[in-house]
Structures are given as C-alpha cells and as structure tokens.
C-alpha cells in the first residue's frame, strides 16, 4: 500500500470510546422466526451497569469473548457449570469481533502498540478522511475473522440444537468465482449440479461423462470403495488423482480444487482435497440450491454474540473491560482489575489475545515449540454493490472469489480467497460492499503483494464490466478521430481499450490490512488430531502447585474460510473441563417438537445414523461421514424396460 | 426430495420410548376413530362431527373412510339446495387450503389428492372453480419435488381442464389455443429433464405431448408467433433426431439411468416414429445409436473392466430391432453371447436373460 496511510485517528474526530454496532437486541429483525425477546447481554445494551463483580465463587472463568470461547461458555453454562465470562475490551468478540470503522481505527492503533497478542502490521487507509469521504462509522460491521458456513456443518447443527440460530439471520451463498487466465470465469459452479453439466454447451460429451463420474464417486459411491481409491493416492497431490482417475482437465480441476474445495495450495493432498470437495457437494441442496450461508449483519462476531446471550440465559455472568490481574493457585482465588476477588473451583480458559500479564512467560514457553502460521488479510470497503458477481442479483448478497495458486501476475504460491458481502447483508450501506481477502502465504511481503494484486484484478474486472465506461471512452475517441476510424473498428478495440484507459479507480471507503498469527495448521490437522505436542489447548499450564491443571490456553482462529474445526476444538476444551464431551449441548428444551414445526426455517440438517452431522470435517483423515445429498444425483434402480406408454409408470 | 431417502431404523429401546411418549396420542386417535365410526353409522351430519374428521385426518391422512365421511357431511349440511352458493364455495375453498397444507406434509398420499379433485368438481358445479390457481399450486408442488408422479398426473388433469375452459371461451380458435398450451407444457418438460433427466414422469409427459402437438401443427395454419417453436414438429424424423440427441448427453453422463433408456426404447419403437419414414432411414438411425452406445460401453469397459449392464442391454435391444428390420434371425449368436455376459454381470435378472436366451421371452 503505497497510498497515504493514517494509522492514528485524528484527535478531533468525533470517535466515542463507547461507539459500537447496534446489537442484535436493538436491531429490528428482518425475518419472522427471530424470537421477540432476545436476552440481555451485560455491558452491551446497558454499558453503564459496570459495577464490580458480585460473585464470590464460580466454577470456570473464561477470558475473551471470541467465537470459540463464547460457544464454550454456552455449552458449559447449559451443562450446569457456573461460568464467569470476561473480556478486557469494551466490546464483545475478541479476535472474531465485528467492528465499526471508528472502532477499527482504534483497533489498528492498539494492534501496532502490541496490545493484541498475535495480531500485527495493522494499517488502515481512509481516503479523504471523514470530511470528503462521508461515511457513518456505525453503518459498517467489519469482521476481524470473516467466515462462511457450509449447510452441512457441525456449527450449523449446533446453532439449531442450541437454538442460538433464532437470534441470527442467514443468507444463502451460491456464487463462487475462480480467476483463471487473467479473467473471471462467468459461471463457476458449472460442474456441481447435474443440471449444469447437462445443459452446458461448452463441455464435450466425454468431459460431461467424466465430471458426472467424479460427482457420483464423491456423493453416491459406497464409502469403502471411495476410501480405497483415495487411499491409493492419499498424500499425493489432488491434481494427480483427478487427472489419472477421472481424466479431468485443468479448468475443471481448478474449479473443483480451489473454488469448490477452497484448497490453498497446489500440493494439497488427495485425502484432504476430497474431503473438502465433498463438504461443498454434500452441502448443496440441503436448504436450497446453495452450499453455503453467511450470517446477516456480520459473521463470527454475530454468532459469538448469539452464544454469549444463550450462555447468559443459562446463568453465565458477563463483564467487559475487565482483566484478571493475578491468580493464587493455592487458595484458587482470582483477582480482577475491578478490584474483585473470586474463588475459581475448576478451570480458567484464556484467549491467546488476552493472556494476563502474570501468565505471559508461561504462554511464551508453551508456544515456543509450536509451528506458527500467518494469515495476511486485506479488507476493502468499496462503493459498489458488486452485483456483477452475484446471481441472482436481486437476492444474492455475497460471493466468493478465488485466485488459485499461480494465477496472479505475482505468481502466488498460495490461493487468495475473497468473501464479498454487499449492503444487502447488513454489513455496510446499500450500494457498497466489503471485500474480505486473505492468504496463507508465509512470506509476509509476498502475501501483501498477492493480496494487492488480487484487489487490482477485481477492481479491473469491475471497471471493465461496468456499462458506461467503455462507451464513454469510445465516444471520446470517435470525437478525436472523427471521420477516420469507422465505428466497427472501435468496437473491436473494446477489450484492449480497457487497458488503455486512464486508470480509473473503484471508490474506496476504507482499506484495512493486518497479519494474524495462529498455531492451527491450515489443514486443521492439529485440531482434528490434537495432542499436547501439537496443540496449545492440550498443553498443561504449570501453576506452581503440584498436579494442579487449572489453566487452559485457547487457540487463535485458523486460516480456514469456513467454520470447520471450531466445534472440534471447543469440545476438546469442554472435555478437559468436564471430563467428557458426551453431554456437550445435550440440552432438552421442553417444547422441542412443536417449536421445530412452528419454525419451519431453518430445518434440521440431515444427520446420519451415528447421529453425526455430515460435512464440516476437514483434514483429520476422518472420512467416516457417509451422507449423500440425494438431490444432486439420483439413481432409479427401476429395471422395468418396457417402452413408454406403460401406465403403471405413472401410477 | 422424496427419493433415495433411507429409512431410519431406530433401536428397540428408542421405539419403546417413542411408544410410551405417544400413548396419549394413540389413545386419543383410537377414541376419535370409534366415535366417528359411530356417528357415521347413525348418519350424523353435524359441524361437530366435521371438526372431528379434521382432527383425525390431520393425524392420519391415509384414513380414506374418514375422508368419505367428511364428504358426506359436506354434501349433507353445506351443499346448497337452493341455499347460499357463496357459503358452500367458501367451505370448499377452505377445504382446498387444508388439503394444500396436508399435501406439503404428505405429497404422496392418494386420498388427499383425491379429496382435492372432489372439491374442484364441486366448485365446477357451482361455476366457482379457479383452474389457474390450481395450476400455480401444482407448479409450486412440482418445484418442491419434481419427480412426484402424483403431481405430474394432477398437472395433466389441471391442464386438460384449462384447455376445456379456454376452448369454451373461444371455440373458434380451439386448435390454436390447444397448441399454445401443449407447447408450454412441452417446454416445461424440457426444463424439468434438463434440471434432472432422471425423471420418468417428465419423459412420459413429453412422450404424450409430442404426437398431439405434431397432429395439431399439421391440422391448422400455425400463427406466426409460434412458427419458431413448432419448427421441431415438422416431421417425426426431426423430432426423433432431436430427442435422441438430447438423451445422448444423458447416456454419456449416466448410462445406468433407467428413465433415459425407457424413453430411448419408446423413441425407437413407437409407431408414431417407426411408420413415418423409410426402412432405410430407420436402419440408419438404429446403426447410429448402436455406435453411440457402443462407444459409451467401451469407455465404461476401460474404467470398470466390464461391460455396462444398461449399455449392453440397449445394444441387444437395438441390434434386435435391426435384425427384425432385415428379417434376419433374431436370436443370433452375437446376441446370445451378450445375454451370457449379462447373466454373469447382472445376476439379479439372471432368470429373465436365461428365458430370453432360450427364446421363451422376447427381447423387444
């Protein structure tokens, strides 16, 4: 970013320390199934109620209100544990917060002052500042860790099981674009449904056959056959598997691996990629013709707020702007910044961004041996609704754009993944959109170049695709060389003119970049196969008292674009607290049956016989899900071969 | 939507729990049944009894006796004998609403569909029927499950009535009106098979429409606005080639899909096509098809190391048609050898192939 960067908010700005987005309780819900009463969340709707904690003791203290801590708080509270949930910020969400622009400005300053462990290199650029770039900070809800949700995923079933979904609103996400040969493919989900394969005129019959074979293999092949074939390739790149077994061509492979599978690297193993591709395909058609959803008004920030409210209903005590200042492992007394002292009976679970000072040395020691991974993010708010990428434009509010490895002029090694959400999703005003891009490239200079380059490509595509731009230029040229250039030639020149044009820019409201660090492997292997050697959440934190295992450090969010891995990770911590995860959210809401029927939406996702919800499992080599989404491919095993006209076929 | 849904087997313990939980419901159901049977035996036709049938039918829509009783009540207490037509029409429209709610839950229950038809005929008698509304309803239901054959049959029923109504309004343009409606229906089947060609009902409807449209096109002067759309229906040969080309994609994508083969068999044997062109043309088509299927079968062999059952069956079918045309021997050594392969690779239908091999059962 060579453009001016203001990393200090001007002293004169009207920024109020308490500025925040409207909470879900203050907002008017836009769907009918949202409950009339949304439970109060301490310190949010009524920030003045910030008196010292009046608890004498509690079972568990959770520090940080990020997504996984919030889910954990709700799970423990519903199980009967007395939880004290605090956050040292004056807002909810921690590293998965959803912030206004002014909050974000302050956040960037704090990051650069080292106030947020695991975040660094924050930059924020607001062209023209507040004067010429008129924006209302609170109209924006920018997720620090944006994510999308697959329709078959453990988080979605948990949202339904826990009823937290009723505080939230979801929107479908069906637009996946892949950047290839310096262009965006028009319609990208060509190879995901029988209909598209059947009607696509650009595919040869043989290609159609191969694609169909692959779809059947993924969705309806007997599990043991599928596993056996995948096993032969196991750790070899997915590319080899798709070429050798299914004779697929480059462009279909790119689509399957990077857009449908959302894989990051060319070397992604067959085992991992197949699970990822299956995740997409089995999610398709669960609730409609889309594989994913986004939550309205914000992603992980909204969902974590929902779980906090659920936890509050179950009796969790909340307090913001509070830190733990000390802990005495002998008397089990925790001291807090508001002066209160509380006895903690069981455990203290701490977000890695909010490690209390007295624990910093032990956190550093424990994480020393863990390989860490960087996620570089670039978030841009543009004054465009980006309908070009959304189909159908009237109702779609989000899209995914993927730049596969080596597709950018920077010869990117890692894919760049972008979530686009426009005003219809409630995260920014109408006519604007937020582009959340990120990469797992570990060379940070390179990562920034890749992200900038991807941004330029998207910007160019928007300008090129905008009606008005090229005709305007043509008019100019016609005027300039009147009488010499025939009109027909000008039209031919169209595409090259796009590069010739004076460089116009897509108008920007705000641009934010930062680097996030995590100990979770991008393939999520150390979540699904976590042990004390590879995962911070499994490590015992020495307290100085023998055999005392009271403190648990949490994980930073992973680089994964979906919510996969989060529930698994939370369950591990839950089991460490309670001894087992058997009763994880095993809540019996009394009015279950009737309620579910009254609220037709969302429906219960399909669950297989072992009770496990399908999809949502990536990288851990757990291929035990056997769901088939019946509607994608259907197979009539009717062997009646009489000619048509036989009426029993209709009766 | 309704297909390939596996039955969930619950454990004996869960079954027992459910049974215990449902005890109240079961008791109520049994009491209600007994009560309604009594009422019916005594020819009781009251609003109360009517309401009780609603309760019971919501619990069990398959209970046709209760549907019958319900209709008896409707006829006895609401049907106007010089009484208010509006009231009865309102009652019937309420019935349609109830039926629609039930159809969403039980889209394959014959008695609900049956009751809907009965209501419509009652409305016809009152001149209060709205066929276009029904058409919208069935279109919506087929969107939810495009392979529900009840829905397809109901759609044909509605379309037939729309045809009658439209023609009655403007009898002088009968055939143009019919042509337009049938062309729309034909296009509807196109969209449905494109979205999922594994759809017996859609192919069947298509097969029904083709000869009818063809007939109409050749009976009247087609208005200019339909010229483009009827091009396909110039002659049976063009239709045949067009349809074969359409299913060719399906054969490549999913040779084990029986709905396609069933349409294929119809295309190659129905008199509408076979009598419309010369023997030479027919043989040419058959040979072309044989080539396509053999190619797919070769691809399948390459991948799976053995013939594809459905391809092989269709090769036998097509070859037999050729042999018949040429008045040659039907059960040639070649066909016998194919049948022997089928006996091996498709053991479930072994008996049938053996019978065909012995000449006891014909192939076409």
TrEMBL record, chain A:
The keyword Transferase applies. One of its GO terms (cellular component) is membrane. InterPro entries: FAD/NAD-bd_sf (IPR036188), GDP_dissociation_inhibitor (IPR018203), Mrs6 (IPR017230). Keywords: Transferase. Residues 1-14 have a biased composition (Low complexity). One of its GO terms (biological process) is protein targeting to membrane. Residues 1-32, 592-651 are annotated as: Disordered. Residues 626-638 have a biased composition (Acidic residues). It comes from the Eukaryota. GO terms for molecular function: GDP-dissociation inhibitor activity; Rab geranylgeranyltransferase activity; small GTPase binding. Substrate-binding subunit (component A) of the Rab geranylgeranyltransferase (GGTase) complex. Binds unprenylated Rab proteins and presents the substrate peptide to the catalytic component B. The component A is thought to be regenerated by transferring its prenylated Rab back to the donor membrane. Belongs to the Rab GDI family. This is Rab proteins geranylgeranyltransferase. The lineage of its organism: Eukaryota, Fungi, Dikarya, Ascomycota, Saccharomycotina.
Automatic annotation (TrEMBL), chain B:
It catalyses: geranylgeranyl diphosphate + L-cysteinyl-[protein] = S-geranylgeranyl-L-cysteinyl-[protein] + diphosphate. It is an enzyme of class 2 (transferase). InterPro entries: Prenyl_trans_a. Keywords: Prenyltransferase, Repeat, Transferase. GO terms for cellular component: peroxisome; Rab-protein geranylgeranyltransferase complex. Its EC number is 2.5.1.60. One of its GO terms (biological process) is protein targeting to membrane. It comes from the Eukaryota. One of its GO terms (molecular function) is Rab geranylgeranyltransferase activity. The keyword Disulfide bond does not apply. PROSITE patterns: PFTA. Belongs to the protein prenyltransferase subunit alpha family. Catalyzes the transfer of a geranyl-geranyl moiety from geranyl-geranyl pyrophosphate to cysteines occuring in specific C-terminal amino acid sequences. This is Geranylgeranyl transferase type-2 subunit alpha.
